[in-house]
């Protein structure tokens, strides 16, 4: 019992840290300015339609929830950080999207078994530390024959390499936590799903990011806005040498992945795997 209580306490602390990490900085701007179209692509690929019951799990500001609602679905945006959900409220309303918002842990969703027709997560559930628990919840709340749709980061692509660049500077992850990049490996997702799904497909979506003039501008943008990166810099505040080294390294991926013409803007292709499957019959 004492061991179970200790694990529960550690899990609560871990989730509190995750909530604080995503609430700091300005993730809503990152989602709106870097990957605004990914949610729509996920909604289309999953075949969301009018009247479908849909949760956007680890929704953030609602990158998938808003287009799903605009498609006529009955949507709930669920996220561990209510601050992100609230920030997404006004942009959704301005677009005419009506949806519910609920604070929720992706590893323990507050929904009934089989409550939804289509279960979505757009670069969201991948950050849940315990992959088996999160995958189990996605499957549990999806009705038999329903659809699972996930967008993650390709481990070897730009969007996956940036976290890998920061990792050596970050505090070690807690015991049992698994890296988000694994969700970008189709074999890993298949292993998580097992025989609980049928008709699995994995495609890829590429976002051409052109908003930065220099690698340093890219670095500073994420250094100031993106919670996981901001948190690492805060942990290094008393070590200026490590801060300087991270400054150099974080600009590196943008420099290496630039395919621009040298006309004043970087052009980087960020790749995301898009996975869909159907929940196996009960």
Automatic annotation (TrEMBL):
GO terms for molecular function: methyltransferase activity. Pfam families: Methyltransf_25 (PF13649). Residues 56-146 form the Methyltransferase domain. Keywords: Methyltransferase, Transferase, Ubiquinone. InterPro entries: Methyltransf_25 (IPR041698), SAM-dependent_MTases_sf (IPR029063). One of its GO terms (biological process) is methylation. It comes from the Bacteria. SUPFAM superfamilies: S-adenosyl-L-methionine-dependent methyltransferases. This is Ubiquinone/menaquinone biosynthesis C-methylase UbiE. It comes from Streptomyces prasinopilosus.
């Amino acid at each position: 019992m004492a061991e179970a209580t200790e694990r529960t306490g550690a899990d609560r602390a871990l989730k509190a840290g995750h909530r604080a990490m995503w609430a700091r900085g300005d993730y809503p701007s990152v989602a709106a300015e870097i990957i605004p179209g990914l949610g729509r692509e996920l909604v289309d690929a999953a075949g969301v339609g009018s009247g479908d019951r849909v949760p956007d799990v680890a929704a953030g500001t609602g990158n998938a929830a808003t287009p799903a609602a605009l498609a006529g679905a009955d949507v709930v945006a669920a996220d561990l950080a209510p601050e992100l959900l609230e920030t997404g409220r006004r942009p959704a309303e301005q677009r005419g999207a009506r949806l519910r918002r609920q604070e929720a842990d992706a590893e323990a969703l507050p929904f009934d078994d089989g409550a939804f027709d289509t279960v979505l997560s757009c670069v969201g559930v991948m950050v849940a530390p315990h992959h088996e628990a999160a995958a189990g919840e996605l499957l549990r709340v999806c009705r038999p024959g329903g659809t699972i749709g996930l967008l993650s980061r390709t481990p070897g692509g730009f969007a996956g390499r940036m976290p890998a660049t920061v990792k050596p500077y970050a505090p070690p992850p807690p015991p049992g936590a698994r890296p988000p990049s694994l969700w970008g490996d189709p074999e890993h997702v298949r292993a998580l799903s097992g025989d609980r799904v049928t008709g699995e497909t994995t495609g890829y979506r590429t976002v051409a990011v052109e908003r930065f003039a220099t690698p340093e501008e890219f670095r500073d943008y994420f250094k100031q806005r993106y919670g996981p990166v901001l948190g690492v810099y805060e942990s290094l505040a008393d070590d200026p040498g490590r801060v300087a080294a991270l400054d150099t390294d974080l600009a590196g991926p943008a420099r290496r992945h630039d395919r621009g013409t040298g006309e004043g803007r970087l052009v980087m292709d960020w790749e995301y795997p898009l996975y869909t499957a159907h929940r196996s019959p009960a």
